[in-house]
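user: can you give me the structure for this one chain? tokens are fine.
assistant: on it. calling the predictor now.
[tool input]
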Amino acid sequence: MEELSYDFKVRKHKIEEILDNTDTVKEVDQFPNNEGFTYTNGYKAWAGAIFVDLRDSTSLFTEQEDVEIAKVVRGFTSEIIEMLRSGTEDKELKEIGIRGDCVFAVYSAPTKSDVYEIANRAFHINTYMKMLNKLLLDRDLPEIKAGIGLSISPTLAVKAGRKNSGINNLVWIGKSVATAAKLSDLGNKRGIQPIVMSKLFYDNMIELQVKKNSNKEPKSWYTKAYDEKFGDYYHACIIKEKFDDWINTGMK
């Protein structure tokens, strides 16, 4: 392989600029607009993450025709992205994207109502999976399952990439994103229900869910479990009733 056109002598000075000019990390109640992030600062605040991970994607990708795979993956990703971004502003939704067979989003979550709103998106997505599978079945396409992981934590966010290259993104340093990704891998297999949330996430949203469902017993919807890596966590299969009723009555 020939040498890259990479001038390591010049780039050494660029690296030194990066290392020497990153000078502030501010602890804030809420992450600023994306324009507030530069290549010299960072912010630490409460972040909430949701990961929606397609189950057994290896079998899907190896056993189905390419056109069928494309249809299923697009049906899976497009509406989940819509539900993750719907009704949000720049200060709330910090990042949304796709990693392999997983759709994810990261939100600023300074209040318990923010945490509940992330959970509410998970309930909608869980219900959507039922709708999607009915539509797939009608077209003789393979049905699919997903695990939905939820977590919150104080999180450091820094802008990374290369200035003026157009290649940059926020890097999330903390438990929220990593834990949500790992919890999504637990969901919808080995007896674990689809929605899986860290204990801290559950503790910060359950009171509001109880208040919003005063004629029901929301705490009974969850099962507490333990994992050596994550400690205590909660899992459930919660659906949005109005959405579910529409699905059950023919989606007309």
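assistant: here you go. The domain at 26-31+43-248 is CATH 3.30.70.1230 (Alpha-Beta Plaits). The first strand starts at residue 24 and ends at 27.
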